[in-house]
Design brief:
Shape: globular
Helix content: 25-40%
Number of strands: 35
Distance between the termini: 98 Å
Largest sheet: 10 strands, mixed
């Protein structure tokens, strides 16, 4: 066993040691960017509170260190109140605030160091550029109230000495509120990186202080998704910013060959960990793995805090190397065969989002972790990290991970693609944008309030004028963005909005339904034949189920679930291109299976991930054949799947999903339901393979607006056609509604499946790692869609929708069963015998169509109508 620097950095402190570390000796502080103890190398000075010492010290410092004082940039300063030591471990605060300090002054104020027989003072050091580290020192024996008063006075003196006038308060610890409540910052930010109340030795008042801080904060950031889920209902502006990574720094481990001296002699295979070693470490798991595999060597790097070093397992194959400099970490990672996250599953780890997870991955090292929520999602679900909790599971997972070919398996390419999205630079840029927007909004609000106060009371008439002007200006702005004042896409007059109907018109055609089928036929009749067309829809919008709009957060969403355009028809694509520009988009879907997110349709990566294999395209084809169970005849959806991929994959991917979606077992559904779902032997993870795959650049609704903007087309919404069919005479009708309803359910109702949609907006840039995630399991919903993937919209927040299938409600999916087909045939006979009415679309022909198929069918029906019109001339 190797041991180095096995110190317990667990000093006394006035506020308790719920943070990572507190230094007791002011001359022995943790080394820069790590946790090892050394003399402080930074130039620093102390400002004393008591007179005359404070005055003398201040005079001395001003005469000797004026040149080293920060230079104001014109931007507000940032004052950070932290429970962590700047020079302890280089983590989230250091990554964010060093970036912040590139453009403004940053004052990082640590919790106090309590010492006997000293005068209260602050020690100020300037480790880099515009960043200043402030450490309060307090004498022992002060009451809680006296400590707060003293810290407040020290803080006020610091503000005066450094001319801190316009500033942002950035809190990591709610406990600092006790001596900062009197401050008047431009903005209050609470960067909640951990659930501190769950940490060992947390102050009893912490929860109450956090409640107060949440009431005062303008912005709240969380260090992970699980923490966001807890905090999002406690504040209106909560944003999730999970752990990011400095990829270039840790990617050095992929090419470094020089071994650090204290690691060079340790045999392989090496399983490594770096980080703080405290109550969050699963000591029993560590000991169990070492005992189960004495040929493996566990390399543990980091300071020991809040626990007795003697409690750590002592074995010949466990090597404690102590804390290391942040800059040196890649050299250690380079020599590991596997990186591990052996965290205990307890209250202190419930909401953690370990920064080391993406750091390990950036180094190109396979990772095995216990089931920490923010590691499972997204890293475990995307197959980037193996998840194991017990000793046997951990050993098996580690064995598999170390045997994996990270290149050939595609693992490293998936990791690199993911890491591109989570750099610390990108995270800080997103945070900064939110900060600037919030400051602007606050200042605008104050300006408006000031104007109102200076103008005095308005008369009702003036208020009405002001509101009208405000609405007009707002409407003009929203119109430019394609939105109306209800947060939905505006039908701008500039786009030739559908006209207002008056009863004096005589229309050539009444079209029932303003979805794809009805709108295409209306546009063709008006533009090509010069016909007058009335389009009627009982909904309050055009576009049918493809209708999209901007929600209250300003995010473009699909009201009725995701609509992804794809087609192999050049005619269809070129036709729609008359009414929209396109955004190239290839849809991808993941399925949540066995705690992992895997590609669907099933492909090579799906099989390799699920079965822990490393097959190539030829081998996976044979593998799938070995799973397949041939059927004499293919009649049902169950027959289709089992004959292709066997019962195991059928149960994992298809059966549960189908039961939820259709309310029937796949053995009860026609083969056509699942026949269109392919299985691939390559790594193509696109959901569709059509020639044309794109999304309307400005949304579907704007495309429909263009289609219906012809002066010969009038649109009536919120209208049942039966209410106006006699009062507004039309020569012929195009009907796109349910065919059984048209004939008053003469042969009974045709069954449909319906959906409930639960829309949510989250204060984070990205909610899930794929546009759509299917849940073929016990969840009540079938899938979750994140719309920004589809639309390409950039926004600090994101909106999602859950889909819950149900039997009753708006008709969405015809149920393909033989008895239903027989009922439809009877209605089809009635339709064929009904003169002057054209039945088209999904509901009128009782058949599931994709959007392009609806368009193609509508174009065909139009041609029939045009031929008929020509014959009648």
């Amino acid at each position: 066993m190797t041991q180095s620097n096995m110190q317990n950095t667990n000093p006394k402190n006035g506020n308790g040691d719920y943070g990572s570390n507190y230094s007791h000796n002011p001359d022995a502080q943790p080394n820069s960017q790590n946790g090892s103890v050394s003399a402080n190398p930074l130039a620093s000075r102390s400002l004393y509170l008591s007179s005359p010492q404070f005055t003398d010290s201040l005079a001395d410092s001003l005469s000797t260190q004026t040149a080293s004082r920060p230079t104001a940039t014109g931007l507000p300063d940032l004052v950070c109140l932290s429970h962590l030591r700047w020079n302890f471990v280089f983590q989230r605060p250091q990554h964010l605030l060093t970036r912040c300090a590139q453009a403004r002054r940053v004052f990082f104020i640590e919790e106090p160091i309590v010492q006997p027989q000293i005068l209260a003072h602050v020690q100020v050091s300037n480790p880099i550029g515009n960043l200043w580290v402030v450490v309060p020192h307090l004498p022992e024996g002060l009451s809680e109230a006296a400590m707060q008063t003293t810290q407040r006075l020290l803080l006020d003196n610091l503000f005066s000495e450094h001319s801190i006038q316009h500033y942002i308060c950035w809190y990591y610890t709610p406990m600092a509120l006790s001596f900062t409540e009197h401050l008047q910052p431009l903005l209050v930010v609470y960067d909640c990186m951990d659930e501190l109340s769950a940490f060992k030795n947390a102050p009893a008042a912490l929860k109450n202080r956090e409640t107060q801080l949440l009431q005062r904060a303008d912005l709240v950031f969380t260090g992970g998704q699980s923490l966001y889920a807890v905090k999002r209902d406690q504040h209106p502006n909560v944003y999730a910013f999970p752990s990011s990574v400095d990829v270039p720094h840790f990617a050095q481990a992929r090419t470094l060959t020089q071994e650090p001296p204290d690691q060079a002699a340790i045999p392989h295979p090496r399983l490594g960990f770096f980080g703080v070693i405290d109550e969050r470490m699963d000591i029993e798991l560590l000991a169990g793995v070492a005992e189960a595999r004495p040929d493996w060597h566990l390399v543990i790097i980091g300071p020991v805090v809040k626990i007795d070093p003697a409690s750590l397992p002592q074995k010949d194959n466990i090597h404690y190397l102590g804390a290391k400099d942040y800059q040196a970490l890649p050299t250690y990672l380079a020599g590991w065969d596997l990186a591990i996250l052996p965290f205990a599953r307890n209250e202190s780890t419930r909401f953690i989002s370990p920064t080391k997870t993406p750091e390990y991955l950036a180094a190109g090292k396979p990772v095995v972790s216990t089931s920490i929520q923010d590691v499972v999602r997204p890293y475990g679900q995307q197959g980037m990290v193996y998840i194991a909790d017990t000793v046997p599971e951990f050993v098996v997972a580690a064995d598999i991970a170390m045997q994996m070919d990270v290149h050939q398996s595609g693992w490293l390419s998936r990791v690199d693609a993911f890491l591109e999205q989570i750099s610390w630079d990108r995270t800080w840029a997103s945070m900064l944008k939110l900060i600037e927007e919030t400051i602007d909004a606050k200042q605008a609000s104050l300006t408006d309030a000031s104007s109102s106060n200076s103008a005095g009371a308005y008369s009702n008439g003036n208020i009405a004028v002001d509101i009208k002007n405000s609405v007009s200006n707002s409407a003009a702005r929203n119109s430019a963005n394609g939105k109306n004042n209800n947060g939905e896409i505006a039908q701008s007059a500039g786009l030739g909005a559908p006209g207002v109907v008056t009863r004096e018109y005589l229309f050539d055609y009444l079209i029932v339904g303003a979805g794809f089928s009805g709108s295409v036929i209306a546009e063709r009749l008006a533009s090509q034949l010069g016909k007058k067309v009335l389009v009627v829809d009982r909904r309050n919008h055009i576009g049918g189920n493809a209708y999209d709009h901007y929600d209250q957060a300003g995010i473009l969403v699909h009201k009725y679930g995701p609509h992804i355009f794809h087609t192999n028809s050049r005619e269809v694509f070129e036709y729609l291109s008359q009414f929209t520009e396109w955004r190239s988009y290839e849809h991808r879907v993941r399925a949540s299976v066995d705690g992992q997110l895997v590609p669907i349709p099933i492909n090579l990566d799906t099989i390799n991930t699920l079965y822990g294999l490393n097959l190539n395209s030829f081998e996976v084809e044979d593998f799938l054949k070995s799973l397949a169970e041939p059927r004499e005849s293919i009649r049902t959806s169950e027959d289709v799947v089992i004959s292709k991929v066997g019962r195991v994959l059928y149960e994992k991917f298809f059966r549960g999903y189908t039961r939820k979606q259709w309310g029937l077992d796949p053995s009860e559904l026609d083969k056509s339901v699942i026949a269109r779902i392919p299985t691939r032997t390559n790594r193509d993870d696109r959901y569709f393979t059509d020639t044309y795959q794109a999304m309307p650049l400005y949304g579907f609704t704007q495309m429909f607006q263009h289609m219906l903007s012809h002066p010969n087309i009038k649109v009536m919404l919120n209208t049942d056609y039966r209410e106006i069919v006699k009062g507004i005479p039309c020569r012929e009708m195009v009907y796109t509604g349910p065919i059984d309803e048209f004939f008053d359910y003469r042969y009974g109702k045709l069954p449909y499946r319906s959906l409930d949609f639960k829309h949510e907006t989250h204060n984070m840039p990205v909610y899930q790692p794929a546009p759509v995630i299917n849940y073929p399991n016990e969840h009540l919903y079938t899938r979750v869609t994140e719309f920004k993937y589809l639309t390409g919209q950039e926004h600090a927040k994101t909106s999602i929708v859950y889909e819950f299938p149900k039997a009753e409600g708006d008709p969405y999916y015809p149920v393909p069963r033989p008895e239903n087909a027989e009922i439809y045939k009877q209605y089809k006979t009635l339709a064929d015998a009904t003169p002057g009415v054209y039945f088209t679309g999904r509901l009128a022909t009782y058949k599931y169509y994709n959007m392009d198929q609806c368009v193609a069918q509508a174009l065909t029906v139009y041609k029939q109508m045009a031929n008929k019109a020509m014959l009648m001339v």
